[in-house]
Design a protein that fits this description.
Elements (H helix, E strand, L loop, with lengths): L5 E4 L12 H11 L9 E5 H7 L3 E3 L7 H9 L5 H10 L7 E4 L2 E5 L5 E3 L4 E4 L2 E3 L5 H16 L4 E9 L6 E9 L5 E3 L2 E3 L1 H13 L8 E5 L16
Parallel strand pairs: 2-9
Antiparallel strand pairs: 1-13, 2-13, 3-8, 4-5, 5-6, 7-8, 9-10, 11-12
Helix pairs in contact: 1-5, 3-4
Length: 234
C-alpha cells in the first residue's frame, strides 16, 4: 500500500510563448530552484502551457461553421457556433462522440477522453486554445529532457482542467502520460492512477491565475513503463 506522497510546486516558470522550448525552460527552472529529481519522480504539467508552446491558438475569424455546428448551436445557444465547429473537428466530426446535456457539451476526442468542450479554452472573443496535438508525445519529450539533464528516470503527466454538468467547479484529469501506467490494480480493483495523480497535482497547481503550471510528485510506488499509453485506460 502507498504510505505517503509529496507534491512540490515548480515555482518561477516564466510566461510561456508560442515556440518556446518548454522542456529546456523547465530544466532551467528546476536547476535554479535547486530541485533534485530522483528516479520515479513524476512531473505533472498543465496542458495550457504545452498548448501555448505548441502554438495551438486558433482565430475564430477563420472558422466557418458547418450545418452540423449550426444545429448544435440551436441546442446549446450559449456556445459560439465557430467553437462548436472546432469541437466537432476535435471529435473527428463524429456526432456520436458529441454529448449534450442542458447547457453542457462534451466530446470524445482522439486521445479517448470525453472532455468538456473538447478541452478547448476561449482566450478572447476571437481566439481559442486547443489541446496539445499529442499529449503523450509531449509528456515523453519532457521526461526525456529531464532524464538527460538530471541523469534520472522520471515519469511525466500532462493534465487538463475539466468540469461536469452534474457537479460544481472543475478538477484536473490526465490527457497524456509517459512512464507512468494509467491503470494500477490494488486488491483486485482497477484504479485510474493517472487521473488520481492529476487531481492530486491540481491541489497545488490550482486553476488559472495561480501561475503554478507544474509540480513534482514523489513517493508513488509504480513500475516505470516507457510504453505505457493513456489508451490503456479506455
Amino acid at each position: 500500500m502507498q504510505s505517503s506522497l509529496s507534491i512540490e510546486p515548480v515555482l518561477g516558470i516564466p510566461v510561456i510563448k508560442p515556440g518556446d522550448d518548454l522542456a529546456n525552460i523547465l530544466v532551467s527552472v528546476l536547476r535554479r530552484n535547486s530541485v533534485k529529481l530522483a528516479d520515479n519522480d513524476i512531473v505533472c504539467l498543465a496542458s495550457k502551457v504545452v498548448s501555448i508552446a505548441e502554438n495551438r491558438y486558433v482565430s475564430l475569424e477563420k472558422i466557418q461553421p458547418s450545418d452540423e455546428a449550426i444545429k448544435l448551436h440551436e441546442k446549446i445557444q450559449r456556445k459560439d457556433p465557430r467553437v462548436l465547429q472546432l469541437i466537432l473537428d476535435e471529435a473527428g466530426n463524429n456526432l456520436t462522440d458529441i454529448h449534450i446535456s442542458d447547457q453542457w457539451i462534451g466530446a470524445r476526442i482522439k486521445i479517448g477522453r470525453i472532455l468538456t468542450s473538447a478541452g478547448i479554452d476561449k482566450v478572447d472573443e476571437n481566439t481559442v486554445l486547443l489541446l496539445p496535438v499529442d499529449p503523450g508525445s509531449s509528456a515523453k519529450r519532457l521526461a526525456n529532457a529531464l532524464a538527460e539533464a538530471f541523469g534520472v528516470r522520471v515519469g511525466a503527466i500532462i493534465t487538463d482542467s475539466d468540469g461536469r454538468e452534474d457537479v460544481a467547479g472543475a478538477t484536473q484529469v490526465c490527457i497524456g502520460t509517459y512512464g507512468v501506467p494509467p491503470i494500477r490494480n490494488q486488491n483486485d480493483t482497477e484504479e485510474t492512477v493517472c487521473d488520481m495523480l492529476a487531481a492530486a497535482a491540481g491541489l497545488v497547481m490550482g486553476q488559472r491565475g495561480n501561475n503554478i503550471p507544474a509540480v513534482v510528485i514523489r513517493g508513488l510506488d509504480y513500475k516505470f513503463n516507457e510504453t505505457a499509453h493513456l489508451a490503456e485506460a479506455y
